[in-house]
């Protein structure tokens, strides 16, 4: 899987582009790609993607965006698999290959 971040964010898998969702989903993927092999906290994603407008609605929208992004990037992954919780707070991470 190749991630292209210069210009429009694109994901290429087996030579074919994957259909990444709208602007927030692309921004989420961009944030995760900028921090490879790191845990990016939910709070940080909310702050970066929604800014001062983050609240319960933004938290729900982030959860949906993460779920949809996982569905595109890992269509065979079982629901709930490979989630990481640290200190009682959900974190989102995407392993990058070197």
Short characterization:
The protein has 98 residues and is an alpha+beta fold.
What would you note in describing this structure?
The chain is of the alpha+beta class and 98 residues long. The protein has helices at 23-33, 42-50, 56-73, and strands at residues 2-4, 10-13, 16-17, 40-41, 84-86, 89-92. Strands 1-2-3 form a 3-stranded antiparallel sheet, with no helix packed on it. The chain has a 3-stranded antiparallel sheet with strand order 4-6-5. Helix 1 crosses helix 3 (56-73). The longest helix has 18 residues, at 56-73. The radius of gyration is 13 Å and the shape is globular. The protein starts with a strand and ends in a 6-residue tail after the last strand. The relative contact order is 0.18. Residues 84-88 have low confidence and may be disordered.
